[in-house]
Amino acid sequence: MIRRAMVVLSCVWVAAAGVQAAELGIRNGDVVVFLGDDATEEYGGLQRPDRLSYPTLVESFLVVRYPNVRVTYYNDAMSGATAANTLERLDRDVLPQKPTVAVICLGLRDAGSRAFDSALLAAHKAAMERLIRSLKNAGCRVYVLSPPALEEPAPGPGSQADYNETLAKYAAAQREIASAESAQFVDWFAAVSAGRSKAGRRRGPTSPEAFRPSFRSCALAAVLLLDALHAEPLHVEIEADWKSGAIRSSMGTATLTVAPNGARVIRVTSLPLPWPGLIGQGEVLDGDTEIMRWCRFVLKVKEAPGTGVLMADGDRQVPVLPQQLEEGLNLVPVEPLRSLDAAQELANLIRRKNYVRTHAWRDQELQPIKDPELVEAQKTLIAAWYKYFVGYDKIIARMPKTFDLRIEMSELKLTLPTSMPETAPSAK
Q: How far apart are CA 343 and CA 405, in angstroms?
């Protein structure tokens, strides 16, 4: 049986010498590479749809949370990757990028999609040790992210529970290796297992996509890594008093005015953009407090009308109970933040940047054309794709990372009927 984690999130790391507890794990000018298998790759090739991966979630958070820290990100993961074949392509695909930070997430495929085999684990451990040492010798600060627990049955013989027991052994081995090699260990497996034990296991047919985690699982990996990087959650708190008109905001500049119709208009300028990766995902992550706590824009209103208020943004209106305003309403899952244009544009641009780079690498550079008449044309195409990547990176750097919030709140009026319908006398 898999040992159940005692907490929802389990993140253990071995701090490198000289790193202070509060020091951000990324620095200006860093080059971050993500190495992994199906759980890490975002672009699955021309024949597979891409998805929002944890590397892109990490990047999109750090871009808005630390806009003055310029970092270049590369996702060098491939579906089907193992520690051994990742080590083999290190010189070709990774080290030329001159990385300073490396995140390694391997093990899903190393275990062979079958019952536990001690020889496979021994080979994985040897390759992981060499991989970590090679990256550290190249000047990288290394983070080892364990493989996640599967959320549905894996392809091949054996049950889902059996394969998760195997993956638990790989996670435990990686913890020991990271400690011995002075790398930082992040336990994605334990976090997913704890969440599954609370929510119940998913049942279903065997699927070849079992090794591609859900968005929820990827978001969990992202916050685990952000925690290991000592990033600070994005938390904005706006407090207003309905009667006195007083208002304060922990970030930005806030004002409250009373409109002629009695509505309260709240304006807060120069707020940081909410986490672009979570925009529009409020329903998917509903109840995941450990994830949503990383991006909270909380509105508290004292002395609100007892019937509640209508919170409006243009033509969109949301009824809000006074208890919600008293305790604090997280604005991220509701309008206008739920579909904030600036955050959506930034999220799409980051994904487009990562797509063009991975497409140039996976579909062009690693698949050279054999026809001599097209060789030079392909080289020109690859160079153009990489220029797009650099150009997108510059656009992302100069894009605004702040926005101005406007919320109009009016008293929710309940209209009672002027007369009650007549009722027939009860028969005796």
A: 13
Give the amino acid at 43.
Y
**pLDDT band of 194, cuts 50, 70, 90:** confident
Residues carrying CATH 3.40.50.1110, the chain: 31-228
Q: What is the full DSSP assignment across 318-386?
A: EEE-HHHHHH-EE-TTSTTGGG-HHHHHHHHHHHHHHHHHHHIIIIIITS----HHHHHHHHHHHHHHH
Q: For residue 420, what are its two tokens?
A: 């009650």
Element (H, E) at 244: none
Ranking 38-47, 102-111, 192-201, 347-356 by mean pLDDT, the lowest is 192-201
Full-model pTM: 0.85
CATH number, span 31-228: 3.40.50.1110
Q: What residues have CB less than 8 Å from 416, skipping those under 6 apart?
A: none
How far apart, in whole angstroms, are the C-alpha atoms of residue 38 and residue 81?
8
